[in-house]
Amino acid sequence: MSIVSISRSLIRALAPDARSVYLAAFDGADADLAPSGINAGRRRVAHFLAQVCHETDGLTIRVENMNYSAARLPQVWPSRFKDPAVARAYAHDPEKLANFVYADRMGNGPAASGDGWAFIGRGLLQITGREAYETYGRALGIDLAGHPDLAYSAEWSLKIAAAEWAASSRRGRSCNEMADDDDVEGVTRAINGGLIGFSSRKEWLRKVERLLGV
Questions:
Q1: Among residues 187, 193, 199, 174, which one has the least CA distance to residue 49?
Q2: Pairwise CA distance, residues 148 & 139, whole Å
Q3: Rounded CA separation 196/171 (Å)
Q4: Is 113 buried (19+), middle (13-18) or exposed (0-12) by CB count in 10 A?
Q5: Beta-bridge partners for 174
């Protein structure tokens, strides 16, 4: 496969409202994506950028928004907010909500530990949970758990997203393999764990494909 160069003009065309920090991150895309093989083919680049653009709403989101209304909470976390009174207790309280819904999973401690809030989604693929921050921090040789905001920095955001992509798989197939087969559902499940926002991810994929001529 030939290497696909990702230019700032391509990113601007794809995401006109992209934050400057993300634009700067993609200035190093050719070098940062090469170790994981993401830019070794247009389909891989298309699928990677589609997932990134969905997760960041067109490269505009740095940190996960945890400010939800009581009506919205049961839609996002139906098993946790069956009781409207419980939903009202967490509505429009981002820190309390994050510590509750992310407690005791993804390497986080109990709600009182504050891990849920400390390790909410950040960056290009919205890295979430203490375990992920520690894992990718070790892989890249940085103290990501100690400095979570590095996840959306110009220097590290793309490197972290590439590491997440490379480590994610479904049924023994890597994201690169699924991208080569144009398996958007498989890639989505590997990155997201489910199919949340699937229609948006497919639409982003179509946009990238048009720009890349896939």
A1: 187
A2: 15
A3: 19
A4: middle
A5: 169
Q: Where are the domains of the chain?
A: 8-60+153-212, 73-118
- Global pTM reads 0.92
Mean pLDDT throughout 13-30?
Answer: 96
Coil vs helix vs strand at 173: strand
Q: At what angle do helices 157-167 and 130-140 cross, to 10 degrees?
A: 110
The 10s digit of each residue's pLDDT in 157-186 is 999 999 999 999 999 999 999 999 999 999
- What is the number of other CB atoms lying within 10 angstroms of the CB of residue 207? 18
Q: Counting every residue, how long is the chain? A: 214
- Provide φ and ψ at 68, rounded to 5°: -115, 150
Q: Are 190 and 169 in contact (CB under 8 A)?
A: yes
> What is the rounded distance in angstroms from the CA atom of residue 89 to the CA atom of residue 200?
30
